[in-house]
Amino acid sequence: MPLVAGVDTSTQSCKVVVCDADTGEEVRRGSAPHPDATEVDPRHWWTAYEAAVDRAGGLDDVAAVSVAGQQHGMVALDEGGDVIRPALLWHDTRSAEAADQLVADLGGGDPSAGRRAWAEATGSVPLASFTVAKLRWLVDHEPEHARRVAVVALPHDWLTWRLRGAGSLDDLVTDRSDASGTGYLDVGTGDYRRELLALATRDRLTDIQLPRVAGPSEQVGSVRGRSQRDLVVGLGCGDNAAAALGLGLSPGQTSVSVGTSGVVAAVSATPTHDATGLVAGFADAAGAWLPLACTLNASRVLDATARLLGVTHDQLSELALEGDSGADGLVLVPYLEGERTPNLPGATGSLHGLTLATMTPQHVARAAVEGVLCLLAEGLDAIRAQGVVVDDVTLVGGGSRSRAVQVLAPQVLGVSVTIPDSGEYVARGAARQAAWVLTGTPEPPDWSSSLRTECVPADPRPQVLARYREVRPWST
Fold first, then answer.
1. How many CA atoms lie within 13 A of 299 on its CB side?
2. What's the pTM?
3. Catalytic residue among 239, 274, 284, 381, which?
4. pLDDT value at position 473?
5. Is the bond preceding residue 35 a cis peptide, omega within 30 degrees?
6. Which label site among 283, 322, 364, 382 has the fewest CB atoms less than 10 Å from its CB?
7. Residue 91: what pLDDT?
C-alpha cells in the first residue's frame, strides 16, 4: 500500500494528511498554526510544516508529497534566495489603490477599458489580493526592497522549493492554477505576460526571475528522508484548485465553500474572461479551468449572529429552521467586512424589513443564513453569466457544517447540493496530486470510493434571492 502526503499551507495553519495512494483513504493527519497576520515571514511556514509533519507521524513511509497553498501571496527573494521582507498575503489590502491604478493604466486612463484589457490578457481583473498589485505597492512604497528582488514566488512555490532543499533559484517551480492568480499569467496559454509585470513595476523589475510553470502531473524533484528513501515531490497547486481535485470535481460541477471567506469555484472546460471583475478566470490543477468568485463574508456572519443572539451554532441552526422561507421579508445584506464580490470594500451590512413581527431570534437567524447563501448565489450567477455550466454544488468549509446551511442551500442556490463528510479537502487534493505524480497516469487516480457524501435535492425558492436583490446596495 503506497502512501502519499498532501500539505495545505493556508493563511491560518499548515495541515498534512497521509493517504493511501490507490484509494485516497486517509491514514493519519497533523497540523500546526501560522501567525495571525496579513504579512508573514515565510520561515514560519517551514516551522509549521515540520511540526505538522511530526504530528502526522512523519513521512518516512510516504512515497510522494505535494504542497497546496494560499493564493496570491508575494514572496520576494534576493539573488541569494533570502527573503527580502515578510510575504504579503492575499487578505492584505494595502495594495487596493495599486490595483485600481493598474486597471486604469492598462486602459490608458479608462477603468472600463482597463478591466476589459486585463480580463482578456489574464482572465481576471486585478484586485488588492493579486500578486501584481502587491508588486506595484512594493515598488512605490519600498523601493529599497524592490531593488533587491531577484525572484517573486507564491507561498506554495516557496515551501516546495524549501522542501527540496532551497538550492538554486532556477529550481523554483509553480503550477498554472496558482500562477493564474498572480495577474501576470495568460490563463489560456499558461505563459507569463512580461509586459504586464513591467507595467506593474514601472519598468523596474522587468528582468526578475519567475518560477517555471510545470505540467499538471510533473515530478519536480525528490528529497532524501530520514529513512534514507527518496520522497518524490510534486509541483503543488493553489488551494482552491487543490480543493476541487480533492473533491473529484469535473466540468459542470461546482464547489461552494462557506469558510472565513466564501468561495464559489466551478470546473470549466474553457477559460473565462470577465471584465466586470466579479469572476476570476483561474486555471485548475488538472488541465482545465476554475472560474472563481470570492466573497469576504461567509461563516463569520453566522459567528456574529450567534453572538448577537447569545446562542451556540447548533442553536442558531435550530432558530433559523424554525423560521419561514424568506424570513417574512426580513433580509440581512451581509457586507459586515466590506465586500469583494461585488467589489465594495467600504460597504457595511444592513438589515431590511424589520418590524414588530420580524424582530425575533428566529427571523434574524433565518435572515442571516439566507443572506450568506444569497451572497454566494450571486457568485454562482456571475459564473453562469460567463457561460459556465453549473449542474450541482458541493458544499464545503466550516460554515457548511451548519444544519441550517445544509437545508437552506438547495432552496437559495436552486440546485442539488452534495455534502461530503468533514475533511481537509485542500490537503487531500494535494495528496491526490502526489499520487498522480507518483503513478504517471494520464489522469489523476480515482479516489471517489473514499469520498462519503450526502446529496440534498434542489428545492428552489427563487423569491428569497429576488427579495435580497431588491434591497442590496448595488445593481447589475
1. 16
2. 0.92
3. 239
4. 87
5. no
6. 322
7. 87
| pLDDT tens-place string over residues 26-72 | 999 999 999 999 999 999 999 999 999 999 999 999 999 999 999 99
pLDDT tens digits, one per residue of 371-405: 999 999 999 999 999 999 898 899 998 899 999 99
Convert 51-79 to b/e letters by CB count within 10 Å (16 or more is b).
Answer: bbbebbebbeebbbbbbbbbbbbbbbbee
Q: For residue 227, name the pLDDT band (cuts at 50, 70, 90).
A: low
Could you confirm whether 41 is annotated as catalytic? Answer: no
